[in-house]
Amino acid sequence: MATSGQLNGRAGLIQALGRMRESTFIESIECRFPYQDRLRALEITEEACSISANAAFAVVDELSRPPAGEAVSLSLSTELLSLIELRIPHPLAQPILSLARKLVSEQLVSVLESLFALRQVERFPGQYAALSIAYFACDDVDGIADLEFNRIRAAWDAA
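Structure (tokenized):
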């Protein structure tokens, strides 16, 4: 029979492997999402949802802020955001997907709305992709959201 120390060690290993899988996945799609291949985009989105909320939010981030010069159809973005909404039972899903839908429609939100979203995300340490979406959802010419984003990241990184 396993001791509690062995079980905690295994749980820590499983958690570390999950973070590695999440990190590897996010790196694999960053600025390389298959915007022009619907079936592959659906597969990647399903895979993201099976990995973690942060991985799914990374797909949302790619859809809301594609690389410069990359054309993304509104219909594909809408389809994938709806799929993520169905697959991710996370408290941040609704507010982050709401911001993402505005971004894919080429709308920005106010700095105040972005700050509110950043503070919502703050309650879920490690949700870096959601934090990114909340941060980039506004045109922060005065650097107010920038300060909040940096404060939250620093707190998470220090924990």
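DSSP finds eight helices and no strands in the chain. The mean pLDDT is 91.
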